[in-house]
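Today's session is about reading a structure prediction critically. Students often jump straight to the picture, but the first step is always the sequence itself: look for stretches that repeat, for charged clusters, for runs of hydrophobic residues. Only then move on to the predicted structure, which in these notes is written as discrete structure tokens rather than atom positions. Here is the chain we will use throughout the hour.
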Amino acid sequence: MPTYPQVPDRAASDPVEPVPEGAGRPPRGDLPQPGSPRPEAANGEPGPDAAGPATAEDEYTTAIQELEDRWRRALADLDNLRKRHARELERERAVERSRTAAAFLPVLDNLELALTHAGADPGAIVEGIRAVRDQAVNVLELLGYPRHAETGVAFDPARHEVVGLVQDPDAPPGTVVEVLRPGYGDGERQLRPAAVTVAKRE
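Below is the predicted structure for this chain, in token form.
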């Protein structure tokens, strides 16, 4: 039986040199090195690592579309709210006009009665018209517009409109001497100021 010379074991014979601390290990041949091109599939198309930017761009596009949809829905909701508010406001105005007109119906009824009885007793027409006037004034006051026709009070530019200055020895200067046209309402709810003449200094 032939004999072969034995090859000495290099792993056992060669001493292993220790790796200095802090020194990097040599790169392995099966790992990609920094700066090397990304792997491609066999058919030449980019590999899985090359799909990152395209995926992020798709996510951004989807997010922008969702924001646009929410913006359009918000605009539609705002437009519907505006239309509903306009309808409710017009309905409230119609109700207020109807309530005001209904409050003056008794005044018109009394005017009709006064005109009907004017031929039978002409003297009673004056009292009838005065009563109707008082009723109309009361209706305006109930609606929030009281009548102002006072004389002898100090002139108030917020409630009075001067149409003339007169000399009156019995009236202090700056006071209302005569009311030519009554005023109705106060402050922001004023329908019109009273037209008055005011005493002036001599």
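Discussion point for the tutorial: Residues 9-16 have pLDDT under 50 and may be disordered.
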